[in-house]
Design brief:
16 helices; 0% strand; single chain
Length: 365
């Protein structure tokens, strides 16, 4: 079947219209509670993009969302709904902490590559168990990944209290990493070339996120494995008829997905917190689902969607501070509206846009 929409319209135009509709409805809610939606939008934009400080925090949040969004997107291409990114990122933090606590007396150039490997391996290992249960036992991947999120949370509590906890401390967290395991922040890197930026938690892992996005693009659209993943996602029966092993595709896809989710720990555990504690993920695994949906499981779309949610997180914090009448839960409402319009109500926008493009193409012909 010939595609009606060009790729740019599918990845950029339709999500943009959906986001506009979501913000329009959110604006009606703001009017209902007695506030000015235009002023609220200005505060959100200025708070997230209007200064190097706000933009730094926006980039920091977006970096985490790129990793978890890519994790969900890769699984989506195989028609696998991996919603275990929260647990996979949490367990990956344990791997990052092991490397950092062991090598923090060396140099971050040595520690970072090993921490990346550890984060990917621990995240992939945590995803491998639900993948095996799906591939070999027929267990539903949604149920098992949900369960493993809770198991990961319990495992993290145990490790922080019994293994990494500093003697005499009441806080369930590891000790602070030494200089050898502290990767540079973006403001520190800017100082190297004579540019002054406000201090923020955005760090060098933003480049790792972009590299991961490029790697996913190459994997899905430029390799044989990516073709097999997409073929399995379109029709598992046709893929089996073509000689593609379902067990192999499910396992490999989930391992890659878990590894991508695990890389988020570099940004939070190693880049910002510089220690392991209970708050290293903070819902980013679930936000990744919305990011992948909105980004149409394409790396470019995932990056743009992650930036939007970074704006919502940072701008929402500024909004709640400037206008106390608008609670922080309003950001959750906007997120829910974005998910609603990009998911359940997507065809409300897609069908009219497809008809418009079809009429335009017929006119040109």
């Amino acid at each position: 079947m010939k595609k009606t929409l060009p790729a740019w319209a599918d990845v950029v135009l339709i999500p943009a219209i959906n986001v506009f509709l979501a913000f329009f409805v959110a604006g009606l809610v703001v009017i209902f509670i007695g506030e000015d939606p235009i002023r609220a939008m200005q505060i959100m934009i200025n708070g997230s993009l209007g200064s190097s400080y706000g933009f730094g925090y926006t980039l920091y949040y977006a970096t985490s969302f790129v990793f978890t969004g890519l994790a969900v997107a890769v699984a989506f291409h195989a028609s696998i709904f991996n919603i275990g990114g929260e647990g996979q990122a949490g367990v990956a933090g344990i791997g990052v902490a092991i490397v950092c606590l062991s090598l923090d007396q060396t140099h971050w150039l040595l520690t970072l590559p090993l921490a990346v490997i550890a984060a990917a391996m621990f995240g992939a290992a945590w995803a491998a168990i639900p993948a095996y249960l799906q591939a070999k036992r027929g267990s539903h991947i949604v149920i098992t990944t949900i369960m493993f999120n809770y198991i990961a949370a319990a495992l993290l509590v145990y490790v922080l209290n019994q293994v990494f906890k500093v003697p005499g401390s009441m806080s369930p967290e590891s000790r602070r990493f030494g200089e050898g395991a502290q990767i540079p922040r973006l403001d520190q890197m800017a100082d190297w070339i004579g540019i002054e930026l406000s201090r923020s938690p955005a760090n060098i892992s933003v480049f790792l996120a972009l590299l991961a996005a490029f790697g996913v693009w190459v994997l899905i659209w430029r390799t044989r494995l990516g073709y097999e993943i997409r073929a399995f996602g379109f029709s598992d029966k046709a893929a089996v008829y073509a000689g593609i092993s379902p067990v192999r595709i499910i396992m490999i896809t989930m391992l890659i997905s878990g590894a991508l989710a695990g890389l988020m720990a570099i940004n939070t555990v190693m880049g910002d917190l510089r220690r392991l504690n209970l708050d290293s993920v903070l819902g980013a695994g679930f936000v990744g689902i919305a990011v992948a949906l909105m980004g149409r499981s394409h790396p470019v779309g995932v990056i743009l969607a992650a930036l939007l949610f970074g704006v919502l997180y940072q701008g929402g914090a500024e909004l709640a501070f400037e206008i106390p009448a608008i609670p922080s839960q309003m950001i959750l409402t906007i997120q829910a509206l974005v998910i609603l319009f990009t998911g359940s109500l997507e065809n409300m926008v897609r069908f009219p846009v497809e008809r418009l493009f079809l009429r335009f193409n017929r006119g040109r012909a």
